[in-house]
Amino acid sequence: MTAPPVLPDSPEHAPSPAMGEPTTLPIGLKRWNVALVSAVACATLIALALLWRFEPQGQIFFPRCTFHQVTGLLCPGCGGLRATHALLHGDLSSAWQLNPLLVAFLPVGAYAVSAWAIQQATGRRLPQPLNFRYLWVLALVLILGFGVGRNL
């Protein structure tokens, strides 16, 4: 059996974008991405403004840790809101005491979000030194290890 001939106008003959060159998306998809990213950015800024203004301890509208209420143990995220509140007020040492995992992962997360945003806006990829296959497994092990270690 022979394969059918490939016509010159078929997708197989379409030029692929060069490495690092942005691919074009349909206009509707770009608008959807911009709207979604804008909504998430606005919600994040509102949440950070509320967190800057109000101390999480004792406020009814900030969530409580269900894991801590049920078990009495600290989960890896316990103290995250209070640590973020401390960081927003420039108190790095208090933030570190409340949740060192959050403080340690914050620069990594900020770089990842910035690299993604730059790639979406310009098509250029920033160097990603932590971009390897098992990054999520490593992060999960660190989070679980931190959760166990803080309760010993």
Keywords:
152 residues, globular, 6 helices, mainly alpha, 0% strand
Can you put this structure into words, describing what you see?
The chain is mostly helical and 152 residues long. It has one domain (28-149). Helices cover 57% and strands 0% of the residues. The protein contains six helices and no strands. It has helices spanning 27-53, 66-71, 80-88, 92-98, 100-122, 135-149. Helix 3 runs antiparallel to helix 4 (92-98) and helix 4 (92-98) packs across helix 5 (100-122). It is globular, with a radius of gyration of 22 Å. It starts with 26 loop residues before the first helix and ends with a helix. The relative contact order is 0.09.
Give a short summary of the structure:
With 152 residues, the chain is mostly helical. Helix content is 57%, strand content 0%.
Report the radius of gyration as a whole number of Å: 22 Å
> Please, what is the oligomeric state?
single chain
Largest sheet: none
Number of helices: 6
Helical percent range?
Answer: 55-70%
In round numbers, the mean pLDDT is: 80
Contiguous low-pLDDT stretches (5 residues minimum) are: none
Assign the structural class, choosing from mainly alpha, mainly beta, alpha/beta, alpha+beta, or little secondary structure.
mainly alpha
Order of helix and strand elements from N to C terminus:
HHHHHH
How far from one another are the termini? 68 Å
Topology (elements, then pairings):
Elements: H1 27-53, H2 66-71, H3 80-88, H4 92-98, H5 100-122, H6 135-149
